[in-house]
TrEMBL record:
GO cellular component, one term: cytosol
Protein name: Aryl-phospho-beta-D-glucosidase BglC
InterPro entries linked: GH, GH_1_N_CS, Glyco_hydro_1, Glyco_hydro_1_AS
Gene (UniProt): bglC
Species of the source: Vibrio aerogenes CECT 7868
Record-stated family: Belongs to the glycosyl hydrolase 1 family.
Active site: 369
SUPFAM superfamilies, per the entry: (Trans)glycosidases
Length: 471
């Protein structure tokens, strides 16, 4: 659908950027921080762990000053649960509390809106030892942690995100380092964990509104439009199933407080229905998000899947779908190119995704991740000419403007990532940042910060609140 005139970005549009605690902070065991499941997980061979990351913990002032120079209106970051509660619950760690107080104050001083993710993959290891998300009590520990954050930081933080990419923790938790399931009944246990996380999220939203009536809170899943591989009805049906399992299961619960029917049918077929205790659904129904935050990297193409679909030796990740026998099968999209890590690039699919979410839930949207992972090259004078990243972001921003013109209420864009950090499973040579960090996979070098070409480009875009748009 071509648009003759494009709507402008609202003046209040939150041009931002994102990070997460475990991928950027480092200082993994400093100042009383307890270990998380990520700290205790085995990283794939050949890539760095998260112990030092970009050492933002010690560089946060310099980093925030750079973000201010970039012109950011918002910064989306996460709190490491184990800096606040080293064991997940119990005794509070005052040095951890102070770190986020300082970070938030620093942001506010520069007029940057803090957007705080409560939980981004790094479950306290101590809670994991007590059963992790399989144990209902983890939902209570989460609620207590949330209540603590609301009371500590709610005077300055207006935007809260509950759980980053719960759907990816469920579908790709083995790769991300978050998954531990019962060996006898793994799928049932996984979706029991999912139920407890949904319950935890509902409790967080209710508490937020009780404690901070002016604050806004929302979920932050990874959402992608799903294309059928062909008009063959079986392909369309499989694509519809995958949408339900990957996308709508999570958002239907967050917004409507009910399980998606197709997802439930899928779980029933696998004998994986979660145990739902009396009162759970009333809590889910009472919890209401104020907006939907979502991460978008690309779309997926889905075909029908034979019952004997052989998955041996095939692994997908957040953006590469392999499939499930008899349910859905991921395919390449012949109309799209891939990035250096095999992720397809689909700016138009971004517009479709925004429309689909808005049509379904009619809540304001904020994009909390979108970006291009690449092997950046540092020139002799230290410059990084990441024109490919500028192209990627420009094309996606164009599609936000097109979606706004379509009538979708998008109020912010926080690309991944503000600064170079460590990828979930592909190390720190897979870079995303506007700010380069001088380190290599196994040599942390000087950790010096420098501005990439994309930094100057985004700075000018934010300043002008506009971008050149093509249909
Ligand atoms: C999302 C995660 C982020 C981030 C991003 C890029 O799924 O929320 O934590 O890492 O993907 O993925 P990767 O690091 O695997 O390149």
């Amino acid at each position: 659908m071509n648009q003759s005139t494009l709507s402008q970005f609202p003046r209040s549009f939150l041009w931002g950027a994102s990070t997460s605690a475990y991928q950027v902070e480092g200082a993994w065991n400093e100042d009383g921080k307890g270990p998380s499941v990520i700290d205790m997980s085995q990283v794939p061979e050949g890539v760095t762990d998260f112990k030092v990351a970009s050492d933002h913990y010690h560089h946060y002032k310099e980093d925030v000053a750079l973000m201010a120079e970039l012109g950011l209106k918002a910064y989306r970051f996460s709190v490491a649960w184990t800096r606040i509660f080293p064991k997940g619950d119990g005794e509070i760690n005052h040095k951890g509390v102070a770190f986020y107080n300082n970070l938030i104050n620093e942001l506010i001083q520069y007029g940057i809106e803090p957007i705080l993710t409560i939980y981004h993959f790094d479950l306290p290891y101590s809670l994991q030892q007590r059963g992790g998300w399989s144990n209902r009590e983890t939902a209570d520990a989460f609620a207590f942690y949330c209540e603590t954050l609301f009371k500590l930081y709610g005077d300055r933080v207006k935007y809260w995100l509950t759980i980053n990419e719960q759907n990816m923790m469920i579908l790709h938790g083995d790769l991300i380092g978050t998954k531990k399931v019962d060996e006898l009944n793994p799928v049932k246990d996984l979706y029991q964990q999912n139920h407890h996380m949904l319950l935890a999220q509902a409790k967080a939203m209710i508490l937020c509104h009780e404690i901070l009536p002016d604050a806004k809170i929302g979920p932050a899943p990874n959402i992608s439009a799903i294309y059928p591989a062909s008009p063959k009805p079986e392909d369309v049906l499989a694509a519809n199933s995958f949408s339900a399992i990957r996308n709508w299961l999570y958002l239907d619960m967050a917004v409507y407080g009910r399980y998606n029917a197709t997802a439930i049918s899928y779980l029933r077929a696998q004998d994986a229905l979660p145990e739902i205790l009396p009162g759970d659904m009333a809590i889910m129904a009472r919890a209401k998000p104020d907006f939907i935050a979502f991460n978008y990297y690309n779309t997926h193409v889905i075909a029908e899947s034979p019952v004997d679909f052989n998955l041996a030796g095939k692994t997908g990740d957040q953006q590469v779908t392999i499939g499930e026998a008899g349910v859905y099968k991921g395919c390449d999209n012949p109309y799209l190119v891939k990035n250096e890590f095999g992720w397809e690039i689909d700016p138009v699919g971004f517009r479709t995704t925004m429309r689909e979410i808005y049509e379904r839930y009619a809540l304001p949207l904020i994009v909390t991740e979108n970006g291009l992972g690449a092997f950046d090259k540092v020139e002799e004078d230290g410059s990084v000419y990441d024109g490919y990243r500028i192209d990627f972001l420009q094309q996606h921003i164009d599609q936000i403007q097109a979606a706004i013109t379509d009538g979708v209420d998008v109020f912010g864009y926080c690309p991944w990532s503000a600064i170079d950090l460590v990828s979930t499973h592909q190390g720190c040579s897979k870079r995303y940042g506007f700010i380069h960090v001088d380190r290599e996979e196994f040599d942390v070098k000087s950790l010096k910060r420098s501005k990439k070409a994309s930094f100057y480009w985004y700075q000018s875009l934010i300043k002008n609140n506009t971008s050149e748009v093509s249909d």
